[in-house]
Amino acid sequence: MATTPVPDWLQKFTGLNSWPDMNPPYIPLDFINFANIPNIPLRAPGTCPTNRLQCSFDCFKCVSHDDVYTCPRLSQTFDDGPSKFTKNLLKHLHSKATFFTLGLNVVKNPDIYLDIKNRGHLLGSHTWSHKFLPSLTNEEIIAQFEWSIWAMNATGHHLPKWYRPPYGGIDDRVRAIARMFGMQAVVWDHDSFDWQMESKPPQRTKKQILNDISRWKDQGRGIILEHDVYKSTTDLAIEINKIIGPNQMTVAECVDGINYVKEF
Ligand SMILES: [Zn+2]
C-alpha cells in the first residue's frame, strides 16, 4: 500500500493536503489549555536542569505518578518504526509486544502498521519526527503529538493512550501537554542499547546484549527498550523473543490499562 492518504476531515481541519516533513506545523486544538503547562525553560539535547524539580527521566531517571516504567513480566517494546524490517520481526514474534511508532514512518508504511495491529500487538506514539521534546516550544511539542496521533488515526483508526518520548526526553512540561491528549508516558527499566550494534565502529555486540537479557530474565520483570528499524536489531529481537518466551505483556497489560483512548 502507498502512503496513508490525508483524510478529508484532516484536510478540512488543517488546511493541508499532504503530511508534514520533519517540522510539523502547529495546529491549535480547543482542548489544549496553556494554563495547565508549567513554565519550564527549554533545554538542548544532552543538557540537564540543576535540580530534579522538573522530573526529567533522561537526566535523573525521574518518573511521575502516571509514567509506566516497569512490568510484572519481562516484556519487549520496539521504537522508531514501522520499517521494512518490522515485517520479518512480526512473522517470528511469539508474544504480544508494544510498538512506539513515528508518525512519519506510520504514513509511509501503513500496511506494516496494520499488520502490527492485526496481529494483536499494541501501538503507541513515539511522536511525529523524533525530536528531543524538552528542547521544543509548547506549540512544537503539541505539533509533534497531534500529527503523530493523526497519522495513527488515519492509518489504524485509533487514538493512542501510550507514548514514549524520544531519547527518554521528558519532564513535567512534556507530561502536562501529553496528558491533555489523554496520553501517559512509557519509559523503561531495561535498555538493550541494541542500536549501538549499528554505530561505526559498533559500540555493542550481540553477546553483550544477550548477557543482559539473561540477567533480566532471571530477575523476571521489566520493560526492555529495543528498535525495529535495523536488520541487526530485529534479527536479535527474534532471538530475544525465543529466550524470554511467549509469556510477555503489552505495556497496557503491564498496568492493567486500556489499549487506546478511542478505537473507531
Ligand atoms: Zn526513538
From TrEMBL:
Residues 72-261 form the NodB homology domain. GO terms for cellular component: prospore membrane. The keyword Metal-binding applies. This is chitin deacetylase. Keywords: Carbohydrate metabolism, Chitin degradation, Cobalt, Hydrolase, Metal-binding, Polysaccharide degradation. InterPro entries: Glyco_hydro/deAcase_b/a-brl, NODB_dom, Polysacc_deacetylase_ArnD. It catalyses: [(1->4)-N-acetyl-beta-D-glucosaminyl](n) + n H2O = chitosan + n acetate. It is an enzyme of class 3 (hydrolase). It comes from Pichia membranifaciens NRRL Y-2026.
